[in-house]
Amino acid sequence: MATAKMLFAMADYGHDPTETAVPYMAFKKAGFEIQFATENGKTPECDEKMLRGITQKLLGANRFTVNAYDEMSKTPEFCSPLSWSSPDFSLNSYNLVFLPGGHEKGVRQVIDSPIMHKQLAEYFPATKKPSKKTVAAICHGVMVLSETQDANGKSIIHECDTTALPARFEQFAFWGTRVFLGDYYKTYGVGSDDVEVSVRKRLDDPAKQYKNSLSPSPFIVQDQKYNYLSGRFPNDAQLLAEKTIDLVKSNLS
């Protein structure tokens, strides 16, 4: 079986450490060839509030994830990412594109990027089964896909089954921390749509396509037409990685 080649597409700052480091360790263990890419090749940094200090201890990464992140952050692939804005950059050579989430406002760099939208608009249709290409996304990472439009002005996941960060979770985190952290838990600021609302708006039939669970137990959604998997929040990161590994390996076997 060929070695799977994968890419983490990231902003310079703000991604959730659990949704990045936990999948990274799983993909590394599975033998995947891993690369990272940021807009201009700057080494990415995950959300410090979720990684260190009082907010980490109360709301952020656990000790396993902190250790995994520290290990990941020393690797050559993480320290020397590609530039996804480079004229010669392309997603086409990858078997897997992974989009971690995170609510820190820095992630808007990749969610809103016309360059990344163009790349994904070319790549995602090629994941239609049967295919050796796969996309996986978690939490706000799903918004990178939902905000990417095809030639007809529809989201590239308009016909897919998907999940994302549940609105109830986002609202709970926002109102529960607003006195101390302001609008930290609202990526686009107070009054903006929740992630779930944003994603639902891009689907053809959200009542059928948007899958949800309010259980803290791991939950992921795997689409049937495309090699596309999605998760909600950090609790889903390990399961999402495991299911993604299974799918990529089966497609390459």
From TrEMBL:
GO terms for molecular function: transferase activity. Keywords: Glutamine amidotransferase, Transferase. Pfam families: ThiJ_like. Coiled coil: none annotated. InterPro entries: Class_I_gatase-like (IPR029062), ThiJ-like (IPR032633). SUPFAM superfamilies: Class I glutamine amidotransferase-like. This is Class I glutamine amidotransferase-like protein.
